[in-house]
UniProtKB/TrEMBL annotation:
<comment type="function">
    <text>Functions in two distinct reactions of the de novo folate biosynthetic pathway. Catalyzes the addition of a glutamate residue to dihydropteroate (7,8-dihydropteroate or H2Pte) to form dihydrofolate (7,8-dihydrofolate monoglutamate or H2Pte-Glu). Also catalyzes successive additions of L-glutamate to tetrahydrofolate or 10-formyltetrahydrofolate or 5,10-methylenetetrahydrofolate, leading to folylpolyglutamate derivatives.</text>
</comment>
<dbReference type="InterPro" id="IPR018109">
    <property type="entry name" value="Folylpolyglutamate_synth_CS"/>
</dbReference>
<comment type="pathway">
    <text>Cofactor biosynthesis; tetrahydrofolate biosynthesis; 7,8-dihydrofolate from 2-amino-4-hydroxy-6-hydroxymethyl-7,8-dihydropteridine diphosphate and 4-aminobenzoate: step 2/2.</text>
</comment>
<feature type="domain" description="Mur ligase C-terminal">
    <location>
        <begin position="303"/>
        <end position="419"/>
    </location>
</feature>
<keyword id="KW-0547">Nucleotide-binding</keyword>
<keyword id="KW-0436">Ligase</keyword>
<dbReference type="InterPro" id="IPR004101">
    <property type="entry name" value="Mur_ligase_C"/>
</dbReference>
<dbReference type="InterPro" id="IPR001645">
    <property type="entry name" value="Folylpolyglutamate_synth"/>
</dbReference>
<dbReference type="GO" id="GO:0046872">
    <property type="term" value="F:metal ion binding"/>
</dbReference>
<dbReference type="Pfam" id="PF08245">
    <property type="entry name" value="Mur_ligase_M"/>
</dbReference>
<dbReference type="GO" id="GO:0046656">
    <property type="term" value="P:folic acid biosynthetic process"/>
</dbReference>
<dbReference type="InterPro" id="IPR036565">
    <property type="entry name" value="Mur-like_cat_sf"/>
</dbReference>
<keyword id="KW-0289">Folate biosynthesis</keyword>
<dbReference type="GO" id="GO:0005524">
    <property type="term" value="F:ATP binding"/>
</dbReference>
<feature type="domain" description="Mur ligase central">
    <location>
        <begin position="46"/>
        <end position="262"/>
    </location>
</feature>
<dbReference type="GO" id="GO:0008841">
    <property type="term" value="F:dihydrofolate synthase activity"/>
</dbReference>
<protein>
    <recommendedName>
        <fullName>Dihydrofolate synthase/folylpolyglutamate synthase</fullName>
        <ecNumber>6.3.2.12</ecNumber>
        <ecNumber>6.3.2.17</ecNumber>
    </recommendedName>
</protein>
Length: 435
């Protein structure tokens, strides 16, 4: 192991807990690095449970279509850590990343800090050293005490749909989790909210009132909907008639709407309706209902089969994926087969219940890239509790081979899902990593 991977391995040993939400360690290191968080390009911060990555992707595509230079910080990565840091259009290169890791390691001097905190500090150092017009800053976990929440005056704060996830760290109710997400709201900074459950909305509105953040709320101040094969966005400034987004799934209309509402709240950025339209057509976000059109894994399936990939991993994510599969099935019926691996921190039963009556078979597989993976028998038991026929496999390759042999006269539609870690393994095995 060498280069940036060697630094990442050492960073893991700096703090006994993988997740320990706090701003103190991050602020201490940033100050010792010269406070790069204060000299980065102006930021749009994005929090939420589901859809924050897709919303970030829409924002990037629309801003770049408007000719803007855009930095992006997202997590987790799928295949390589470099995917988390995009500098003015390109993933950070290995030489620059390793040199920055060396710098933050030296300044940190062995003191306790989590992997996410020290790598976020490194990312902010990189963002501060390369000019850009906008930084899209995706929250890692929660919001209030997330390492990204060191930016005092973002351009806007976006909160995508909030649902139950990470209860161990954020609270065991929707309101408690939403309260933590709302911690990114700042005084006089526009807050853009995707459609929320009532309990979450009340918590967010309460925090917004406390800090003095003006809100633009989906369903009240703006809305995005599908009409006759088009995306219609409407707010107080008028109506936009746009093409449907390139990203597949009805839930992507709401994510696109959040991005549009954000840019409409920031007229000084100069993103025109033409740039919004171009962004909808150009947007790319791997492992979110991504169809794999080529590659080693696809070659294992019979001719005419479809291979899809989605890293969804919680009950709301499962429902969104299942809805998309149902739409695909209505247009072009095929036997639906799931290849599923999940982490033991996720609600496997709630996720898999969404596919009852839709998927004909589930193949459970291990996830080798995470120590928190559920065992294959655990995945199978959860699928069976959801009323799904299921059997274990030792790998994605074995699962697809079985799916191919089990296929009848109609080639199947196969979806690999349940975890972004599994999605990353699938992209690597397929030979089609993000680029």
């Amino acid at each position: 192991m060498s280069g940036s991977d060697a630094y990442l391995a050492r960073f893991l040993d700096l703090h006994p807990k993988e997740i320990d939400l706090s701003l103190g360690r991050t602020l201490r290191l940033l100050e010792e690095l010269g406070s790069p968080h204060k000299t980065m390009p102006p930021a749009i911060q994005i929090a939420g449970t589901n859809g924050k990555g897709s919303t970030t992707a829409f924002l990037r595509a629309m801003l770049e279509a408007a000719g803007k230079r855009v930095h992006v910080y997202t997590s987790p990565h799928l295949v390589r850590f470099h995917e988390r840091i995009r500098l003015a259009g390109s993933y950070v290169d290995e030489e620059r990343l390793a040199a920055t890791f060396e710098e933050v390691e030296r300044v940190n001097a062995g003191r306790a800090i989590t992997l996410f905190e020290i790598t976020t500090a490194a990312a902010m150092l990189l963002f501060s050293r390369k000019p850009a017009d906008v930084l899209l800053l995706e929250v890692g976990l929660g919001g209030r005490y997330d390492a990204t929440n060191v930016v005092d005056r973002p351009l806007a704060s976006v909160i995508t749909p909030v649902s139950l996830d990470h209860q161990k760290f954020l609270g065991d109710s929707l309101g408690a989790i939403a309260h933590e997400k709302a911690g990114i709201l700042k005084s006089l900074v526009p807050g853009i909210l995707s459609r929320q459950e009532d309990e979450a909305l009340v918590a967010i509105e309460r925090e917004a009132a406390r800090v003095g953040a003006p809100l633009a709320i989906s369903g009240q101040d703006w809305q995005a909907r599908e009409e006759r094969g088009r995306l219609v966005f409407e707010d107080g400034d008028g109506l936009l008639d746009l093409p449907l987004p390139k990203l597949v799934g009805r839930h992507q209309i709401e994510n696109a709407g959040a991005a549009i509402a954000t840019l409409r709240a920031l007229p000084k950025l100069g993103v025109t309706p033409a740039a919004v339209e171009a962004g909808l057509s150009a947007v790319d976000w791997p492992a979110r209902m991504q169809r794999l059109a080529t590659g080693a894994l696809l070659a294992l399936l019979p001719e005419g089969a479809e291979l899809w990939l989605d890293g969804g991993h919680n009950p709301d994510g499962g429902r969104a994926i299942a809805s998309t599969l149902a739409e695909l099935d209505e247009r072009s019926p095929k036997p639906i087969i799931l290849v599923v691996g999940m982490l033991n921190t996720k609600d496997s039963d709630g996720f898999l219940e969404a596919f009852a009556g839709l998927a004909g078979r589930v193949y459970g597989v291990p996830i080798s890239s995470s120590s928190a993976a559920r065992t294959t028998p655990e995945v199978i038991e959860a699928a069976q509790r959801a009323g799904l026929a299921a059997e274990p496999c030792e790998s994605i390759v074995e699962a697809l081979t079985k799916a191919s042999k089990a296929a009848g006269a109609t080639p199947p539609r196969v979806l690999i899902t349940g975890s972004l870690y599994l999605a990353g393994e699938a992209l690597a095995a397929n030979g089609t990593p993000p680029h």
